[in-house]
Amino acid sequence: MNWREVRDATNVRHLLNTAHSIGCSVEACLQGSGLDEGVLSAGARIQRWQELAVIRNLVALAPEPGLGLLVGSRYQLTSLGLLGYTMLACRNLHEALVVSTQFRELTLSICPVQLQPFDGGVRMSLDHSVLPRDAQDMVAERGLAVWKRIFGELLQRPFVPLRVELALSRAATADRYETYFECPVVIGAASNAVLIADADLASALPLANELTRNACAALCRQLCDGLEDVVSPFARQVLQVLISRSGEPPVAAEVAAALGISERSLHRRLAAEGQPFRQLDERVRGRLAERLLGDSDLGLDAIAAQLGYSEAASFSRAFKRWTGVSPSHWRAAQRAAALGLESSSLAGVPSR
């Protein structure tokens, strides 16, 4: 578990809003986390350990079982950002779950999640053993509560699990969990899990759209793999902001505001690391352009708009500056290469 991983502050915002609603001090919840109430602003970024610190503080202030249900009930599909839209455009619930496993970094989960088929459906479990004992129960309740809400939004109807299993050190009454989940609940189970029926997994999602799914998946992939070779700490933070907002590319002033510093400080600190802002910005746009050209059938006008260009011609000039070829030529070359690879892989296979 990488406790230094930088992530969106959505979880902390929901924790603090829950604290406020039950009369707990937000200041006390933030104690020792290195955060202040600025974390409630849109675009704020935190490290995983900081979320854990807030969780432990809130549990200490409100230790009664069932707290995680209150927190989890605040989530919506939009809480997942771009991943939520990708899942919404999938063909069915099963495909949406597969997509979520492909982009685990974007799921907001603080614990490992596993999908295990069984006769009649899939068992989706959450491993809270990676957490300190005082945080385990609340995080498990929150995770399962979130899944119920999000799956209902995906299906555009109430989602009722086959069964919910809870492995909590201190549980609320079975009635409370059964009222929330609307299904049988096993307390004292070996792990925390939601059992999803095959019928729900196969249900067509009302807002399915293959083109949208492919385009959004390309953006998710960009979010997950865009930082592998940047080691300068501040440049990585800037890249994370640029990538997380790559669907609507921000200018330098907006990135600086998201990081809580002035635009002048942003440029100065990047210069000290040898990473000019324009270079990072074009890196993100260039990588995203390649994903959209290669993984979708979007036209150049749509891709240009996605990348923040006012017209396709401006995007084409920028892409040619990055790669040496036009977007159309790059796409054609990629598809020709893919066809060649497919043909070579089939060579020697006897026809039937």
From TrEMBL:
Single GO cellular component term: cytosol
Top-level taxon of the source organism: Bacteria
GO terms for MF: DNA-binding transcription factor activity; transcription cis-regulatory region binding
Domain HTH araC/xylS-type span(s) in chain numbering: 236-333
InterPro entries listed in its UniProt record: AraC-type_N, Homeodomain-like_sf, HTH_AraC, Tscrpt_reg_AraC-type_HTH
Record key words, sorted: DNA-binding, Transcription, Transcription regulation
Gene3D superfamilies reported in the protein's UniProt record: Homeodomain-like
Alphabetical list of Pfam families matching this protein: Arabinose_bd (PF12625), HTH_18 (PF12833)
Designated name of the protein: AraC family transcriptional regulator
